[in-house]
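Structure first, sequence second, as always.
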């Protein structure tokens, strides 16, 4: 068992208050993600023989800690978004291997910001809301999207008052409406991001201007669609990705609700705080709502352009303290632990939760304070406070308890097919 020191990523979309409010971390700017794992871009640090070392270096020197896995299998994060993240999707393992090789052959440096494939791995991901959390994921039914586009076109036609400068914008919206009515989603996405990208950038700017003047409630748009456009448009007022947002399912998660996003699912996170776990990859194919590298061709090739149900991931109860999120994924699963409530309600001692990891695992204290006692002969013990975590070696039994109401998450390799 090792106490972890975890890097905070300061992306521009991050929250300026969430990590200080939840974890007491000092903030002098946006704080977007707290990373826990061995990703080479920002590995967690642990102390070995009195000296700090990267978790990646520790596992490389002691491969038994990986329990047979070819590298650390997942990356675990706390994510706090004040602004939308990019419209994006992730590749299959086969596509990642081919894309990585192609970019190597093209001479694109592996650390280049122009690179789409940073490694050869796929990147399925699971997101669990910690506080209210809003996202876009997967294409929604085409008729509903077509109706919103028709309303938007009518509203912008009224605003333009016959201006010839707005003719290309209105024509592009009409073409998009027809494609959606015909349920030709792949062509609709390509029209926005490639075929008429300039016209839809102008459309996005006009939408933001209109909403600024009328407000979302009086815009005439569906309230959910208007709120999505307002949220994304406030950060990216002339980005065609704003129009892509109208094609996707809007999902508002309450704490504990989760989504599992496999390869090809087009998605974006809008705002809120969540924990996220994914395969240990940095392969992101972006199409809009970002200042980072955009690869429209690859995004169009990878995206599953079909109407998809909301990909809920419902946890299963393990016992009175534990709920397990276990998508069909070999790289990861996630357990939520709730401790200390019995003591608060009855004044009686709460039994410790025993954990015996089946692979390299990370225990995160989300709220409260955890007492973690190792069951090995050396008697290692740790106290974890909110925002702190520990790396647990495979088959290293520990007992976790809390004197006051506390919450934790346990990340571990997946076990597809388990009950």
């Amino acid at each position: 068992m090792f106490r972890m020191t975890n890097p905070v990523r300061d992306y521009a979309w991050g929250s300026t208050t969430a990590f200080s409010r939840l974890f007491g971390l000092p903030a002098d700017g946006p704080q977007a993600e707290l990373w826990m794992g061995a990703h080479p871009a920002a590995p967690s640090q642990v102390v070995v023989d009195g000296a700090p070392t990267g978790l990646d270096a520790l596992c490389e020197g002691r491969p038994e800690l990986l329990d047979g896995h070819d590298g650390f299998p997942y990356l675990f994060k706390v994510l706090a978004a004040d602004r939308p993240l990019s419209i994006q999707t992730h590749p299959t393992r086969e596509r990642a291997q081919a894309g990585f090789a192609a970019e190597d052959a093209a001479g694109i440096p592996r650390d280049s910001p122009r690179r789409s494939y940073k490694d050869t791995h796929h990147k399925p991901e699971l997101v669990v809301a910690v506080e209210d959390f809003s996202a876009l994921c997967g294409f929604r039914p085409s008729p509903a999207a077509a109706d919103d586009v028709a309303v938007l076109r009518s509203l912008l036609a009224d605003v333009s008052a016959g201006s010839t400068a707005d003719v290309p914008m209105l024509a592009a919206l009409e073409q998009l409406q027809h494609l959606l009515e015909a349920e030709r989603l792949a062509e609709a996405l390509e029209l926005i991001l490639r075929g008429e990208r300039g016209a839809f950038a102008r459309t996005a700017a006009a939408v933001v201007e209109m909403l600024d003047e009328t407000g979302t409630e009086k815009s005439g748009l569906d309230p959910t669609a208007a709120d999505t456009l307002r949220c994304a448009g406030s950060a990216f007022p002339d980005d065609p990705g704003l129009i892509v947002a109208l094609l996707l399912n809007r999902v508002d998660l309450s704490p504990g609700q989760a989504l599992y996003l496999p390869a090809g699912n087009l998605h974006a996170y809008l705002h809120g705080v969540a924990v996220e776990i994914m395969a240990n990859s940095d392969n992101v194919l972006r199409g809009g709502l970002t200042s980072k590298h955009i690869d429209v061709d690859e995004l169009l090739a990878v995206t599953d352009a079909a109407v998809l149900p909301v990909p809920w991931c419902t946890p299963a109860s393990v016992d009175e303290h534990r709920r397990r999120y276990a998508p069909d994924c070999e790289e990861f699963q996630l357990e939520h632990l709730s401790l200390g409530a019995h003591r608060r309600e009855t004044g009686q001692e709460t039994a410790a939760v025993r954990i015996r990891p089946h692979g390299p695992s990370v225990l995160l204290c989300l709220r409260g304070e955890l007492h973690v006692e190792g069951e090995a002969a050396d008697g290692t013990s740790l106290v974890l406070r909110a925002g702190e975590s520990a790396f647990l070696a495979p088959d290293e039994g520990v007992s976790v308890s809390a004197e006051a109401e506390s919450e934790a998450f346990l990340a571990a390799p997946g076990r597809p097919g388990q009950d």
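Margin note: The radius of gyration is 23 Å.
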